[in-house]
Specification:
This protein is of the alpha/beta class. The chain contains 13 helices and 15 strands. Bound molecules: 6-O-phosphono-beta-D-glucopyranose (BG6). 6-O-phosphono-beta-D-glucopyranose binds near residues 217, 236 and 339.
């Protein structure tokens, strides 16, 4: 039997809003740009009693507007789209699904099963796919499974999920998604660090004073109070998105660009994260908050202890980063939306031109803006024109928008393309999941011993968070 170039992308849970908001626009944009020369078919799978036309009508209601696509291309895209009503908990339905998929592809083809379902259904769905023969990889054909977050809610559940999934499929068939890894500037971190020889020699404890990572959001839980109540900022953002950013900024150069080499280096960083419980006074390293009004949202307990904000100071105990504080902060309902990483370098060994005007306001800072206005800037001091030697901070700036006319692809577009071609570099491996939950569980246990501080919406969270920095150590950034 010859191998096939066609890929069927089968979305399980296709009636949910992830499909219309993210997955379909991503596939459509890729299709418009002819990024799937071998062809893809999109198959929506869910319990709703829709047919192909109803599914297409729903997708059309949310039709993405992307510059490069014409009206005709949307119609052409819809022709490649089908729907199969399926009860995801019933094996018999998967047998019919298998028949329908074969009929649609008119023969064998590669398959991607995207689990856009609630986490309780991850294992059952994969078990049923397996039992219906849909995960077999024969004759050069591939069958891959994409799992959305949350991947477990603590180390124990994540380990059980990993174990369960890996008895059904191989690690190289499993794509644990973290959409932050699909963002252009996140990928650029590797290029920036390892293509430009002048930063890397400085990228260590000898020259770096501290590193600050912020994921600030202006939105609240957006009607997802029920989910968020069981999650909180640590599980929702820190354990996954922020630890991935931290791993990329702190990792050693990989020996080459294979998924294995990159993920080997990231996991080493996560492994070296210092546990809070092993430090004296660990509660002084964490500030958690909850915005006023959170408790009156639907699905949220009146006496909820869930954090919508967290700021913390942590360390990576390895040769490169020993003693360098990493400050992490995320929160909902803050005054601005941005994600950035700031690397603060030490002052020169002698201060020929005197100390900075404010002791915390150091020059020698690199800021990587992940979003919005993705780019990179350098803060440095220069001489003010005129008599004397007065210094003044200035910025050197690189903006993606100014340098490239092509808009950056959406995170999901890049990630879906990678699944189709079988590149796991930007997906989380099981040992990364393990290490990040190990640290996040310890963080949550310690955090529970700290007071939950209220904060007003549209403020930068509890003021106590500033106290994580020593007097002259720095400040949380408010505009990267
Ligand atoms: C998701 C979280 O993973 O990331 C959301 O569940 C959060 O709560 C979102 O708002 C942030 O993603 P982005 O791409 O908007 O920064």
């Amino acid at each position: 039997m010859p191998s096939s170039d066609l890929t069927q992308v089968v979305i399980l849970g296709a009636s949910g809003d992830l499909t219309s908001r993210k997955l379909v626009p991503a596939l459509y944009a890729a299709q418009c740009q002819h990024l799937f020369p071998a062809g893809v078919q999109l198959v929506g799978v869910a319990r709703r009693p829709w047919d192909d036309e109803q599914f297409r009508a729903i997708l059309t209601q949310h039709k993405p507007t992307t510059g490069t696509c014409s009206y005709d291309s949307w119609e052409a895209f819809l022709k490649l789209t089908s729907y199969v009503k399926t009860n995801l908990e019933t094996l018999a339905d998967y047998t019919s699904l298998a028949e329908r998929l074969t009929a649609l592809s008119k023969g064998p083809c590669n398959r991607v099963f995207y689990l856009a379902v609630k986490p309780e259904l991850f294992l059952t769905s994969v078990e049923n796919l397996k039992n219906a023969g849909l995960l077999d990889q024969k004759d050069g054909l591939t069958s891959r499974v994409v799992v959305e977050k949350p991947f477990g809610h603590d180390l124990k559940s994540a380990a059980a999920l990993n174990e369960g999934l890996l008895t059904l499929i191989h690690e190289d068939q499993l794509y644990r998604i973290d959409h932050y890894l699909g963002k252009e500037t996140v990928q650029n971190l590797l290029v920036f660090r390892f293509r430009n020889a002048f930063f890397e020699p400085l990228w260590n404890q000898k020259y770096v004073e501290n590193v600050q990572i912020t994921v600030a959001e202006t939105l609240g839980t957006e009607g997802r109070g029920g989910y968020y109540e069981g999650s909180g900022a640590v599980r929702d953002i820190v354990q996954n998105h922020m630890l991935q950013l931290l791993a990329l900024v702190a990792m050693e150069p990989p020996s080459h660009l294979s998924p294995k080499a990159i993920r080997d280096e990231k996991v080493k960083v996560l492994h070296c994260l210092r546990l809070f419980s092993e430090q004296p006074d660990p509660t002084k390293l964490i500030v958690r908050g909850q915005y006023n009004g959170y408790r009156s949202e639907t699905g949220v307990a009146k006496d909820s202890q869930t954090e919508t904000y967290i700021a913390l100071k942590t360390y990576i105990d390895n040769w490169r980063w020993g003693g360098v504080p990493f400050f992490l902060r995320t929160g909902k309902h803050l005054p601005d939306r941005f994600t950035s990483i700031t690397v603060q370098f030490r002052m020169p060994p002698t201060l020929l031109f005197g100390p900075p005007q404010e002791c915390y306001l150091r020059p020698n800072r690199i800021t990587l803006r992940i979003q919005p206005n993705d780019g990179i800037s350098l803060d440095l001091d220069v001489k003010e024109p005129g008599q004397g030697l007065k210094t003044r901070p200035v910025k050197l700036n690189f903006d993606y928008q100014d340098s490239f006319t092509n808009p950056s692809p959406e995170a999901y577009q890049r990630l879906l393309q990678d699944v189709v071609i079988g590149d796991q570099s930007l997906f989380i491996r099981s040992d990364e999941v393990h290490e990040s939950w190990r640290w996040a569980d310890d963080l949550r246990t310690t955090m529970a011993k700290t007071p939950l501080m209220p904060y007003a919406e549209n403020t930068w969270g509890p003021e106590a968070a500033q106290g994580l920095f020593g007097e002259c150590e720095g400040r949380w950034v408010t505009a990267p």
